[in-house]
């Protein structure tokens, strides 16, 4: 019966072939299910890792921005410290101010003097102690500090009656009593203060203008702001842009303190609401950036301003000492406007590359070199910062089209 048993287990029988095929199919199904489950889990882990990476990148960018702010404050503090040290050293070595101070000279316009004139003849005309009449000096400012002018006049008035070395002399004629007058002139070696030429000087000037009572620095800063506002947007220098971005009217100033220059509207801060920027650019239309349309009353369109501020807060930071950072910002603006001017391109990239939009809106500057900036990296960055598809279609798309038309 051995041959019967061998025949019953033969693989050539149809029943065995069917069983083998069923077993193979079941194994393939289990294998395919395992592969599918592994792929699904891998995608889920990658998505979680991508979200964590974007979150850590935003935190890193915020830390870098805070570091740059602290460095700028440190530079400003160092500049202020150097200025105060120079001022202190000058005060320590300065001599008492008198008429012989080389920085300012007190000269007297003298009519011809009759040296034979007797003081007995002058006594009826000047019953009291002889002193020059308090007439208004010619050019009272004349580049002369108030404290120096006051001490110089006090030094002259304290001399009493004139002698051969006095700063003024008396004269008279047959008809009229002698007349005296003063002229305050600046020394040829004295030069007026030059305007600020770099950001460090502007920082020192802003610090000085925030010191209570420093009207000289305040007037100069307001004059520079007024000039910067009148300069067209594409012709503004880096110093003017920095001044308009960082200048704030000091708290100690009252509206009636300096009627010479009208106080310009403060430039809003980076984190200020969009309505503040609308009001600012409505008052300063020449400084309004590209891509913003106008209402019938001349005010900027609110949706365009929202898009402009979103792009501005997400753009790369510029380091004045690094030319590549400026090139990166220029390429960023080019890619952003091209991306959002094509409707549906942003949502298409998000779906194609499985980018998830962050539920929380956070503004972090783009970090990367010029070569790293493309549509994919821009879309990933905007999605990580919470820019949704409706925002892209309703706000960024019209702004980008207007930007390219300008």
Classify the oligomer: single chain
Structural class: mainly alpha
Radius of gyration, whole Å: 40 Å
Low-confidence region ranges: 96-193, 256-263
Taken in chain order, the helices and strands follow as: HHEHHEHHHHHHHHH
Largest sheet features: 2 strands, antiparallel
Give the topology.
Elements: H1 2-8, H2 14-93, E1 104-109, H3 119-125, H4 146-157, E2 181-186, H5 199-209, H6 215-230, H7 238-246, H8 274-283, H9 302-314, H10 323-341, H11 345-352, H12 375-384, H13 389-405
Antiparallel strand pairs: 1-2
Helix pairs in contact: 2-5, 5-6, 5-7, 6-7, 8-9, 9-13, 10-13
Structure explained in plain terms:
The chain is mainly alpha-helical and 406 residues long. It is built from 13 helices and two strands. The chain has helices at residues 2-8, 14-93, 119-125, 146-157, 199-209, 215-230, 238-246, 274-283, 302-314, 323-341, 345-352, 375-384, 389-405; strands spanning 104-109, 181-186. Strands 1-2 form a two-stranded antiparallel ribbon. The chain is elongated, with a radius of gyration of 40 Å. The N and C termini lie far apart (99 Å). The model is unreliable at 96-193 and 256-263 (pLDDT under 50).
């Amino acid at each position: 019966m051995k041959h019967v048993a061998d025949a019953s287990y033969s693989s050539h029988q149809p029943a065995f072939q069917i069983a083998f095929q069923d077993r193979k199919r079941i194994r393939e199904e289990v294998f395919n299910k395992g592969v599918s489950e592994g792929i699904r889990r891998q995608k889920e882990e990658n998505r979680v890792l991508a979200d964590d990476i974007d979150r850590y990148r935003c935190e890193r960018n915020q830390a870098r921005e805070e570091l740059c702010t602290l460095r700028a404050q440190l530079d400003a503090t160092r500049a202020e410290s150097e200025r105060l040290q120079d001022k202190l050293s000058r005060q320590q070595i300065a001599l008492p101010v008198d008429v012989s101070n080389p920085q300012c000279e007190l000269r007297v316009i003298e009519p011809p003097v009759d040296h034979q004139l007797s003081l007995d003849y002058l006594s009826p005309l000047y019953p009291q102690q002889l002193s020059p009449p308090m007439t208004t000096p010619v050019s009272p400012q004349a580049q002369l500090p108030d404290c120096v002018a006051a001490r110089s006049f006090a030094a002259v008035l304290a001399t009493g009656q004139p002698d051969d070395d006095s700063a003024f002399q008396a004269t008279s004629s047959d008809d009229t009593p002698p007349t005296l007058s003063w002229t305050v002139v600046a020394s040829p070696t004295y030069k007026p203060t030059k305007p600020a030429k770099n950001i460090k000087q502007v920082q020192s000037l802003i610090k000085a203008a925030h010191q209570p009572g420093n009207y000289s620095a305040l007037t100069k800063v307001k004059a520079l702001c007024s000039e910067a506002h009148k300069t067209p947007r594409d012709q503004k220098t880096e110093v003017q842009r920095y001044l308009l971005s960082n200048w704030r009217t000091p708290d100690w100033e009252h509206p009636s303190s300096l009627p010479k220059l009208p106080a310009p509207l403060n430039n809003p801060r980076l984190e200020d609401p969009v309505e503040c920027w609308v009001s600012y650019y409505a008052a300063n239309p020449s400084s309004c950036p590209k891509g913003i349309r106008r209402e019938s009353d001349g005010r900027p369109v609110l949706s365009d301003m929202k898009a402009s501020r979103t792009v501005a807060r997400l753009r790369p930071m510029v380091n004045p000492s690094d030319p590549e950072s400026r090139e990166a910002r220029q390429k960023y603006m080019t890619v952003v406007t091209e991306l959002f001017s094509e409707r549906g391109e942003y949502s298409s990239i998000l779906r194609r590359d499985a980018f998830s939009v962050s539920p929380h809106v956070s503004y972090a500057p783009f970090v990367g070199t010029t070569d790293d900036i493309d549509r994919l990296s821009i879309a990933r960055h905007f999605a990580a910062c919470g820019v949704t598809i409706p925002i892209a279609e309703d706000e960024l798309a019209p702004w980008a089209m207007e930007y390219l038309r300008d």
